[in-house]
Amino acid sequence: MKTHLLPVFLFFSIPAFAQNSAQKAQVSSKADALQNQVIAWRRDFHEHPELGNHEVRTSGIIAKHLQSLGIEVQTGIATTGVVGILKGGKPGPVVALRADMDGLPVVERTDVPFASKVKTTYNGQEVGVMHACGHDSHMAILMGVAQVLSSMKSELHGTVKFIFQPAEEGVEPGQKGGAEEMVKEGVLENPKVDVVFGLHINSQTEVGKITYRPGGTMAGVNDMQIIVKGRSAHGAYPWSSVDPVVVSAEIINNLQTIVSRNVNVTENPAVVTIGSIKGGNRSNIIPEKVEMLGTLRAFTAADEKLLIERVTQIATKTAEAQGAIAEVKIPYSSHYPVTFNNPELTQKMLPTLQQTAGAANVLLKPPVTGAEDFSFYQEKVPGLFIFLGGMPKGADPLKAPSHHTPDFYIDESGFTLGVKALCNLTLDYMNSKGK
Fold first, then answer.
1. Is 320 a catalytic residue?
2. Which residue in the list 55, 100, 102, 194 is annotated as catalytic?
3. Which residues pair with 387 in a beta bridge?
4. Is 168 a catalytic residue?
5. What mean pLDDT is predicted for residues 302-317?
6. Residues 50, 55, 100, 168: which is the catalytic one?
7. Which residue from 192, 304, 338, 394 has the fewest beta carbons nearer than 10 Å?
8. Residue 248 belongs to what H/E stretch?
9. Spatial CA neighbour of 361 closest among 341, 387, 383
10. C-beta atoms surrounding 96 within 10 Å
11. pLDDT tens digits for 5-37?
């Protein structure tokens, strides 16, 4: 395989590097000069987080910055989304770059001076709000990229579309949002996007490193609801009931066989998780029904179909065997496709990442069972989604606070590499198509 890939690597990388070394030097110099500004933007966003579809202050700051660079700006897309269009001085493809904007309903526990103190209401409850996944860094990095590329406008072989997207983490029940809604509202059209790049900071990957994976890199996800209906009775007389609690317990246990016995785990991983079970309100009353909520994750359409079919079959048949009824809804409220990195595009752009970060710092990663709505863009156009190190050098990844937790922490020294990577991916792709 190495002897097969080597000529492809050399064919793309050596001419591109020779032609674009001056541009890469410009990018490096400009990104280094912006480091403190990017960090300042990130800290401001971190201190003032907003939940999905409520990113009003956030989107206003972004729009004002893009306008100051002479970039054409569109606002109010998919509620609070912002799109900037930078037309280069030469003809060529349209490259989209995406950053997500929303925070999470998490109470921050870090001791950084710019920690969030924001409170709001979510699903009828008062919650804290925190950028506990790194979207603040994604926005700041892309704002830096916009500043660098706009200063090189006359050299660009094509157009750059900067997509600042709301609600990647989802929205409250009954709302619409995120990448799916932006695609529906035409974010990939006028001008029509040829390719899309994105990155995600990672708190358990060391700063200075970039990780990637061709093909399925993050799982497709379906949430699910299972309602088990039985017959209520006094807890002292269980023989008078059809107990949905016991039936639900059997369903949960039986669902564990899907991954262990139905999925070919040598090819792709999969996840079946029940995260919530609710039923009854007293110790001595067997309830009439139980509701379970869960998540399904897979890396191929075939495995996704298998999971849905088996969950439905196991839940309904297990309930039927006990005289109960199970109603299954998949997806219940949301579905993200597999985050699929186009293999040809990934191979083509790998030399760019290696030249930017150093070959030893660009690492192939295993599949990630988390999900990303960047996948909706990749369903329409070829895309590449990479991961940027945000863990302090020398730290233990097993002990570093993970995403979506109150202690989530990012080393800001890695942001400049993110700016350089997105700039160089854009320039190299344009130069390969526009000359």
1. no
2. 102
3. 200, 211
4. yes
5. 97
6. 168
7. 394
8. helix 244-257
9. 387
10. 23
11. 444 444 444 444 445 789 999 999 999 999 999
